[in-house]
Amino acid sequence: MNRHGGNDALSSDRTVGRRSLLKAAGATALASTLAATTAGRASATEELAWDAIVIGAGYAGGTAARELAAKGMRTLVLEARDRIGGRIWTGSFAGEQVEIGGGWFGPGQTNVERELQRYNITTSHDVAATRAVMPSGTGFTSQAPADAFGHLGTLFGQFYAGSETYFERPLEPLYRQDLLASVDATSLAARLGQLGLSTTDQKWINGSTSVFAGGPSSTGGLAGMAQWYQLAGGTYDGFLSTMSLKPAGGMISLLQAMLAGSTAKVRYNSPVTAITQGSTGLTTVKTASGVSFRAPVVVVAVPVNVWRTITFNPGLPQVHADAALEGVGVPTATKIWLQVRGVSDAVYAQAPEGSPILMMLPQKQLADGSRLYVAFAGAGLNVADAVAVQAAVRNLVPEATVVTYRAMQWGKDTYTRGGWALRKPGQLLRQLPAIQQPHGSMVFAGSDIASGWYGAFVEGAIESGLRAAQQAAVIAG
Ligand SMILES: Cc1cc2nc3c(=O)[nH]c(=O)nc-3n(C[C@H](O)[C@H](O)[C@H](O)COP(=O)(O)OP(=O)(O)OC[C@H]3O[C@@H](n4cnc5c(N)ncnc54)[C@H](O)[C@@H]3O)c2cc1C
Questions:
Q1: Pocket of ligand 1, candidates 88, 267, 408: which has the most ligand atoms within 8 Å of its Cβ, to mutate?
Q2: Of 64, 277, 301, 462, whose CB has the highest number of CB atoms within 10 Å?
Q3: Domain boundaries 18-86+249-327+421-476, corresponding CATH code
């Protein structure tokens, strides 16, 4: 296993099924030719023909690869980065293990729970807030967390009223398709406008909706967040609990375990640039370095926002092309780790939409008395400007002095081009279930296109990886 937990070595003694041997025989001449044409770029001994190729080693691709390899299929994962995990990135900051991307899961996320159990990975609870800083008429006010979350719960109860009916079965979002037309067309901002709330209460809601929309609340769909709310049990406490649990070893530990126990090979630093479905039944996947790999079936497990950077031949079906153009991943998903001094308690802070920092969550207290916080920033904050970051933090917590910080702008990341996903108005009915369907010998995976805990949850990535593996196995025959 390499330092990122990937399975670097293609084990020569792995079990290969009869189907694979037959296909490999047909592909040998092809592989030799390719090896020759890519001389100097691909090793002569490198295998270029596989039973299945998975593009992207995030949770969706990792799940699909593990499942396909478990069926005896020789499976290659082509990963653009030098690490697995994609939008899950367990890194370090201020000497501590931190999550640069996704950080939590919650109870009731059954795929994650089952997988954690399978690999004996334990979990711990996140730090509870001891004070809440919330918008007031003139600025901000400090409250007991129970009071603040209680009021937020009341407001969100109004905001999502009716969602228990139109998302009667939230794991099957189209179960009450008959009720969804107007809901799906409604943005978060429009829904807020329907409620007739006081200005302060509007700020309480839009500080939260604009975080999840990763931009203006007008860009995020009500249906997207209402589905999460119902998945979490239809209460605000349930919704908060989706950010409560952490796996031992970080969010990456489960994916590492999944791939370490698999014969699937991960090839790093291999961004895919083109996928061509051939008439011979083999699909060719070309990487930026010019090396091509072939397989009867290919799983595309990169973020939807990245699809537009890959040349598909034949082109993507209309629904996929539309999603790629519109984007599903939110534009601004800037997560900042802060080490601060001068704050004696564990503050949860939330600011109105448009603020430079929209949300701050308390994390660990360090031995020297300083504290770690996670913040989510709005598009207006220049994270390269330490003075601006300090001012944005003091806007919420005036006594805080930022010692150091680490920001990740997922919207600007080449291999994500967006953050987590939140469907835009209309995308649910326009895209599901068509976007989950195979296109010839190509199948699609990713939390962005999951049915249940889609978009902002590893749970959905695993769901879609399992579905993609089933579809791929059928295509492979
Ligand atoms: C800031 C942030 C916070 C989040 N918080 C949470 C949370 O608390 N809990 C939670 O459950 N989820 C959270 N999420 C969402 C979660 O991270 C994602 O839903 C999930 O990780 C997506 O998995 P995936 O496999 O679908 O996509 P990805 O993780 O994006 O994996 C796709 C992979 O494809 C690779 N790739 C891209 N382009 C190419 C190419 N051309 N060729 C080859 N490979 C390519 C990428 O490098 C990546 O490894 C968060 C996301 C972000 C950004």
A1: 88
A2: 64
A3: 3.50.50.60
